[in-house]
Amino acid sequence: MPTAPMPEFPTGFRWGVSTSAYQIEGAAGTDGRGPSIWDTFAHPPGRIVDGSSGEVACDHYHRYAEDVALMAGLGVTAYRFSVAWPRVLPTGGGAVNPAGLDFYERLVDELLDHGIDPVATLFHWDLPQPLEDAGGWLNRDTAHRFADYADAVAARLGDRVKLWITLNEPFIHMSLGYGIGVHAPGRMLLLDAFPVAHHQLLGHGLAVAALRAHSTSPVAIANNYSPVRTVGDSPADAAAAAAYEALHNRLFTDPLLGRGYPPELGFDTTVVRDGDLDVIAAPIDVLGVNYYHPTGVRAPEEGAPLPFDLVPLTGYPRTAFDWPVVPDGLRDLLGWLRDRYGADLPPIQVTESGCAYDDVPDATGRVPDPDRIAYLEAHLRAVRAAIDDGVEVTGYFVWSLLDNWEWAEGFTKRFGLVHVDFDTGHRTPKSSYAWLREVIATARRGPVR
Q1: 2 in a domain, yes or no?
Q2: Checking CA distances to 71, which of 94, 120, 228, 378 falls within 20 to 30 Å?
Q3: Each residue of 166-183: pLDDT tens digit?
Q4: What angle do CA 277, 282, 287 make, to 5 degrees?
């Protein structure tokens, strides 16, 4: 339980949990689902830490009703899931696979039956492999195929999804997938990956129009943000920090809010056509903020391929991912967004916030995770402090409901409020689940008068 009473949150504050399709669904190749870039990327030896893939993952495709019951028991008011593009359009375009949409319709209806708002993310990194074969996000046509996909999903679910999120963390997908190749599709283009940024954002803007054609629900994007901490006090260190901030925190926000691309990195922007920036800046209703930790930055060595060097931040507790635990970084980030974008900034929802620890059942079968409780408590207090600072934050989603398949780390990193035995699929709520259940119940009851 909380070490001190939790602060009050605004009436109507959205309490949620998040997952993504490839990380939990499993059922690869089931009911007409086509291959994704992660199906392809995960199989060659050496790419995934434990040699696993998401072919089964948490088997959520078959156990979704059990997982919705866990959400209902937790008391959340919203569930952020992702739709697998290859389930809906197995080749990335062309004919819709009805069975794929049928699954998401069952999921959405199950959520609504339990009083939980469906929050649907359209792209969480699982690009259909045929689109990657044609160039992936380096190919402008992928943006248009994404709009077609958004249209198909919204035509079926637009009357029931309560919040649409177009893209999840386009910076991470660009940098890890196309920049340094440690995520699917495994390309190593460094800063030449800029077309991936532009085409993802163009796809976002086109999808906004497609969603609004079928749904009156608000539309958002979920960006990953990392406050930059300058390591060193030289002008070169300061310049490196500014360059990294432009890349990580502004590249996918400045153009969304009508400010164009930041010029600091000198990208070749010949892929940007007349009218593209207007499409990208289509008004959104919510900005999704995914926060995990700040980033230490210093000047690179002479001749380095990038204009910055990333260095570990010291003096903080660490998660099992070796990420620093810096709750005040979330408050700082939310304030930075307010100060930089002012009246152009829409309301914010924290669409991911969480931590990996090596959680194991004890002799009684319980799964104690006191470090996660401390993490969540501190980050919720940071959100409340940001609200007190004048930032409009209207929701908080924990990453993640379930221990899942964690991309290149396979099954070795556990983020869940619920422990999953990956051999049997058995779910066991952790102590953080019980803690958060009480926090949400208290918040939803409101203050005692």
Answers
A1: no
A2: 378
A3: 999 999 999 999 999 999
A4: 110
